[in-house]
Amino acid sequence: MMGWLPVALLAVPLLGALLLLLAPRALRPHLRAYGLVLSGVTLALAVLLVAAFDYGQAARPQFEIDQPWIPGLGLRFHLGVDGISLPLVALTALLTFLCFVYLCWGRARAGEQLMTARPRALVFTLLVLEIGMIGTFLALDLLLFFVFFEVVLIPMYFLIGIWGGEGRRAASVKFILYTLLGSVVMLLGLLLVWAQTGTLDIEALAAAHGAGMARSVQILAFVAIAVGLAVKTPMWPLHTWLPDAHTEAPTVGSVLLAGVLLKMGTYGFARIAIPVLPEGAAAVAPWLGALAVVGIVYGALACLAQRDLKRMIAYSSVGHMGFVLLGFATLTPVGINGALFANVAHGLITGLLFFLAGAVKDRYHTADMPSLGGGLLATVPRLGAVLTFASIASLGLPGLAGFWGEMLALFGAFQPANTLPRPLFLTYMVIGGLGAVLTAAYFLVMLSRVTHGRPARPAERVLQGAGGPSPGAGHPDAPDGDAHDTPGERPVAPLDAGGGPAEIGDRPDDVRTHELLAWTPLVVLILLFGLWPGLLLSLTTPAVQLLLGGAS
Q1: Of 82, 59, 87, nearest in space to 543 by CA
Q2: Is there a contact between 119 and 137 (Cβ–Cβ < 8 Å)?
Q3: What whole-number distance in Å separates Cα of residue 29 and Cα of residue 353?
Q4: Does pLDDT of 493 surpass 80?
Q5: 477 DSSP assignment
Q6: What is the DSSP letter of 455?
Q7: Kindly report the CA angle at 450 between 445 and 454, in degrees rounded to 5?
Q8: In Å, what is the CA distance from 179 to each residue of 51, 59, 299, 309, 551?
Q9: CA torsion 329→330→335→337, rounded to 10°?
Q10: What is the pLDDT of residues 108-146, one digit of tens each?
Q11: Buried (b) or exposed (e) across 210-234, using 16+ Cβ within 10 A?
Q12: Nearest alpha carbon to residue 265 among 229, 291, 238, 225
């Protein structure tokens, strides 16, 4: 009845991008409002999709459209949404809209710089990126899925390469090479499935649960598809493109990369790899779990060694995605539900963290934590408070969205599928629990270095960034609060206590209006899903039980 909704979700940004090519001069004076309106209409359509969705039938695709695409090859334009893809479609539309709010609503210095450097190209790039992201979650044909999966690479490459930092060229080239090579391997796996079954319809393949494919073929196809998905996720050791891409990407690029693009990889496991190739999934699951827990611990240890705030958040994504992959590896409803929940929670929390890292860099012109000098709660208390909230949400504090996904993934490892070795997965659970402790450690260390302490003077920041001691450090006549070498050892001090930026008139702005507008929906959703996890779990559970029909 409402099969036009998925098409409209793709058509709005597509028509908007085409109009930018056809009428560039007419739209040039209105680019800020143009991007905001188009992304707002797409978000409104996503909200309508959520409102019209039949939650009693969440296991089956709804709003389907299935039309011939390339009849000679038997390819079809097949779109639909179920309980697994619906939250990700809504998340994509929301984050894209909030990125346009960040860029276009306010007059922040960072937004001004981006919107004055090739603004038409920037709006075009973000719209094309949105088409690929939403299309990936709507596609119900293997080749259509692959097309949308690849569409996002080119706009993200340009987003990093044109509007990124000083090392943008190397980061963008590394990003495109890794993801393209992974996609080639994944395409081979998809073609193998097609050759064995004679169909590319994801719905039919999932219902067949691997019928018609030998176990050896399923294992080979699963490994090929998993490699392509693991690069995008990213899974250790295929993650090395991610820190550079996040560090050099502009704020909106980092938000969409962490909030949506990484989810495309994990979504592929739930939509294609596990339901279509259940015997391959069961054979590879112990190895997938092993790589997942290595990624959890590796990501946490790498975070403890970072100086750059954006780079630390990037490495944290490696660890959090490790929990998602561990949940998938258990092949149980609990574990996969936890993985899907963690997927959405990570998009909300890490999207907020990258918005905050961009705000800090905009104000202090650096994301180097020692150079910031500490005292963020004293200098910009609202910004420091939101950063603290996002950090404790990411470390998995009960009552916030980051807790449930990781807890359910570990619980799934405690009791994996009957076909999997339980002692091995108990080991994975213990290692994952250690990773959760390390996650709390690096976020608390970051907060102690950035938000606490007496605000450093600009001269102190320069010396600290160069590795030198703070002026007056260790001096016998220095006050107690200044006798420490690192800001993390100093208590939070009010600005009027002296030594802060307010004393020399360089106090940065606190949270600005457009930032408040962009961040508030994320804060609300983090709280909502943390306090009411059943809201999301009731949506994914029926679909998970259906996809596990052949794997359990």
Answers
A1: 59
A2: no
A3: 32
A4: no
A5: T
A6: P
A7: 115
A8: 35, 31, 20, 24, 28
A9: 60
A10: 444 445 555 688 888 899 999 999 999 999 999 999 999
A11: beebeeebbbbbbbbbbbbbbbbbb
A12: 229
How far is Cα 396 from Cα 461, in angstroms, rounded to an integer? 31
- Residue bearing the bigger pLDDT, 484 or 59: 59
Residue 323 identity (one-letter amino acid) = F
Task: Tell me the C-alpha to C-alpha distance, in Å, between residue 473 and each of 154, 343, 476, 504, 531.
Answer: 49, 44, 9, 20, 45
d(CA 268, CA 279) in angstroms, rounded, equals 17
**For residue 277, how many other CB atoms are within 10 A of its CB?**
31
- Six-digit token string for 513: 């209006």
Query: What global pTM score does this model have?
Result: 0.86
For 71, the enclosing helix (H) or strand (E) is none
Cα gap 439→445, rounded to integer Å: 10
Nearest to 232 by CA among 331, 159, 355, 318: 318
CA atoms within 13 Å, Cβ hemisphere of 81? 28
Pull the structure tokens for residue 331. Answer: 């092949």
Which residues touch 137 (CB under 8 Å, ≥6 apart)?
81, 85, 88, 89, 92, 264, 267
Selection from 186, 257, 278, 279 nearest residue 224 by Cα: 186
Q: DSSP per residue over 375-428, as a string?
A: -HHHHSHHHHHHHHHHHHHHTT-TTSHHHHHHHHHHHHHHS--TTS-HHHHHHH
Structure tokens at 235: 């899974």
